[in-house]
Amino acid sequence: MIAGVGTDLCLISRMKKAVRSDHFVRRVFSREEIDYANSRGEPERHYASSFAAKEAFAKASGLGLFGMGTDMSWVRRTDNGPLLIYRDELKAKLDDMGVNRCWLSLAHDGDYAMAFVVLER
């Protein structure tokens, strides 16, 4: 059963400006996300899709981005596609909501990055 759905768009050119600030990068992204983005050409595309994933997840869960914090979840890129990983405190909230699975899709094209999240019970 679907527990929540969320989607988000992030403007890559806006993220390119934002990631010039080391403070912003360290506050919003995990070490894993930072290392991944910086290892790619056009890292702002990957920062933008990670940010969109956090926003989409916040919407799907109903917790809101500021309610759960930007450091409570992060995107892990794998050979089988992206995964959303979360800290134990957030996992406990999801368990209380009956959520046991999270589906994540990322895309970027032109100046936009997009994320789509489905949470299942």
Offer a concise description of the structure.
The protein is 45% helix and 33% strand. The protein has 121 residues and is α+β, with helices and mostly antiparallel strands.
Anisotropy-based shape? globular
**CATH class (first level) name:** Alpha Beta
Q: Which regions are unreliable across 5 or more consecutive residues at pLDDT < 50?
A: none
What is the CA–CA distance across the termini? 5 Å
Spatial strand order of the main sheet:
1-5-4
**Mind summarizing the main beta sheet?**
3 strands, antiparallel
Cα-based radius of gyration, to the nearest Å: 14 Å
Structural class: alpha+beta
Give your account of this protein's structure.
The structure is a single chain. By secondary structure, the chain is α+β, with helices and mostly antiparallel strands. It has one domain (2-120): Ribosomal Protein L22, Chain A (Alpha-Beta Complex), CATH 3.90.470.20. It contains six helices and five strands. The strands form two sheets. The protein has a three-stranded antiparallel sheet with strand order 1-5-4. It has a two-stranded antiparallel ribbon with strand order 2-3. Helix 3 (31-38) runs antiparallel to helix 4. The longest helix has 19 residues, at 43-61. 34% of the residues are buried. The mean pLDDT is 94.
Essential attributes:
Ribosomal Protein L22, Chain A, alpha+beta, 121 residues, three-stranded antiparallel β-sheet, 5 strands
